[in-house]
């Protein structure tokens, strides 16, 4: 076994999920994540916790959904009971075909999702963490050879998380104290209000209210957006390739938009509901282990020297208690490259220039 | 997909487990049973039942057990809650290495088993069924090519179960009415009392209190065993190969024994406890789809033209209510070939001769 599989398991169990002796853990093993499952089981055994191992197979899920008449039972008792009694849930993603669910009608998926609100809430109430084992299917999606893709994944996952968390805290402090963020680059000059909002230091650990491994971003919930922005990092939205999206905001709302490729899916997003026209998230990628786009949002949005904005739903963690932020049925992230001729300013002061933060070496000459 | 995989799933879901709309089902998918998992998910979807899919991986289990200090938590809440709220549990066996658990100390396995008594009971309280997908590993254990092994498995599983159940009922009636069974063949003349005991028609369906697919045996709980018996069908007990076991009984107890191969494990069984010296089961194989030994007790003990006897624990289903039969920590099945120069008699009347029952064509000349 590649020794990095065991290291991945240790980071997941100790840094991310903070598994303790006696914890009741659900481990969901993807079709291609068997090896990571073995390593995680070993780590859980060493910590003296209690695993139930589920099988996260897209092929099995698709086959079930496809055969079902669509009248799904509401939160089946046995599954609800499993998650209500769990302390942690570890999702080991990594399948064998990212298109396995492609022919399940989106209506069926939505109905299924809707029928399981209680189960999802119970799961979200645990110390859950989502990660991915490098599989050939994900390498293919990233247009990379498997060998190189494994290196990519482990560079992203096996960080010095403690030191990255400390660095991200500096940015969080600036954002928490600030009132306004401005992005300036080619075809982009965008201003967003952030006063009263709290940034999340997403340091890949439940201790930071961060549930993805890898993580490595600081995000908040902006509002009152004004100006234009170019998203020049290619991505996939709802299975469709999207390139060079341009948005213009007035009074916090998108008033004009275009895309070189995939404009229809951008339009669908914007026209979903009221909230689809407004931003729900401003995220700043800080994981320097992620140095390329791999068409996988779990990784892409944490890439250092990028910023992402999401149309749609805001996260509660960014909002003052009792205040509700942007509400929407969607949350669609789009990325812009900040590595060249680009500045991120907070209250008029440059915090990041050409991908370098002001506390980093080389910021002055950047 | 081999169309027989879907047929297997249908037999399992409809005939064996009697899955109904709305049932909460746990499906345990073995490492090599993915394809059957897909077909079972489809069948469950069609029936409108609700699956939780678990991953029955020996490698993950061994890795967990091996890493654990052995102080296992008693019936972890989340797992107990899952099974207490389930209507049915379907075990889709079929791994990738039958020796995967070989280096887990038997003490660890026993401690783990003991810590999960409540979970096991909750599982046994459901309409559970255990079956096996044909895998290369099981083909290897059977010393057969994979192609031929698949044919073997589907011949065993895809029976006309309704008609076999009716035939087995004839034998059950004879045993229920009878007081004594006698086996006569080379080096064998064994008499067992069965009066007051009830035979189980094990027709591979929860409707018959039968939880294995394939099944196809009628079994009861004998006592007061007298005489000698030769078990000439090779088998594996506790991972050890065993051949030509000879037992001599007096007053229901083994008083003398030998084996051409593996005598030590036979001795261990007999000396486990008081019940290890007595029979707990007499089973008569009636599945004509099983025409050879494959070193897999789920199949071997149902093979037509064989009889098996188990040293150790008797099943409650065979006993009058409030009566406890033979009690023991072990239950070890051993087989004898009844196809040649062999008779099975009930109260002195020949019921089976050279593998043919008296209601079958050819019995007169057998």
UniProtKB/TrEMBL annotation, chains A, B:
Its cofactor is Co(2+); Zn(2+); Mg(2+). It comes from the Archaea. It holds the Pfam family Peptidase_M29. GO terms for biological process: proteolysis. Keywords: Aminopeptidase, Hydrolase, Metal-binding, Metalloprotease, Protease. GO terms for molecular function: aminopeptidase activity; metal ion binding; metallopeptidase activity. Belongs to the peptidase M29 family. This is Peptidase M29 aminopeptidase II.
């Amino acid at each position: 076994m590649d020794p990095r599989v065991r290291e991945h398991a240790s980071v997941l169990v100790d840094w991310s999920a903070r598994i303790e002796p006696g914890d009741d853990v659900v481990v969901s093993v993807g079709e291609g994540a068997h090896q990571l499952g073995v390593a995680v089981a070993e780590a859980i055994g060493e910590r003296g916790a209690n695993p139930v191992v589920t099988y996260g197979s897209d092929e099995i899920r698709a086959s079930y959904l496809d055969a079902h008449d669509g009248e799904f039972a509401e939160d089946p008792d046995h599954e609800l009971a499993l998650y209500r009694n769990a302390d942690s849930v570890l999702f080991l993603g990594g399948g064998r075909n990212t298109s396995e669910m492609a022919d399940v009608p989106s209506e069926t998926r939505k109905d299924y999702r809707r029928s399981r609100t209680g189960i999802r809430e119970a799961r979200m109430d645990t110390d859950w963490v989502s990660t991915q084992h490098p599989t050939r299917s994900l390498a293919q999606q990233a247009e990379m050879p498997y060998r190189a893709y494994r290196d990519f994944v482990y560079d992203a996952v096996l960080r010095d998380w403690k030191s990255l968390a400390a660095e991200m805290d500096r940015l969080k402090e600036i954002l928490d104290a600030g009132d306004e963020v401005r992005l300036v680059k080619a075809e982009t000059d965008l201003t967003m209000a952030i006063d009263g909002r709290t940034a999340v230091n997403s340091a890949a650990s439940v201790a930071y209210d961060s549930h993805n491994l890898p993580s490595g971003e600081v995000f908040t919930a902006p509002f009152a957006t004004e100006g234009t922005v170019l998203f020049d990092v290619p991505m996939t939205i709802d299975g469709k390739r999207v390139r060079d999206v341009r948005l213009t905001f007035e009074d916090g709302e998108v008033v004009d938009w275009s895309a070189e490729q995939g404009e229809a899916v951008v339009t669908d997003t914007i026209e979903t509901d009221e909230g689809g026209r407004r931003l729900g998230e401003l995220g700043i990628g800080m994981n320097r282990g992620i140095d390329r786009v791999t068409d996988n949002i779990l990784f892409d949005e944490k890439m250092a020297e990028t910023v992402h904005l999401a149309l749609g739903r805001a996260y509660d963690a960014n909002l003052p208690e009792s205040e509700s932020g942007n509400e929407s049925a969607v949350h669609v992230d789009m990325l812009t490259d900040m590595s060249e001729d680009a500045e991120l300013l907070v209250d008029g002061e440059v915090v990041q220039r050409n991908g370098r933060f002001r506390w980093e070496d080389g910021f002055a000459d950047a």
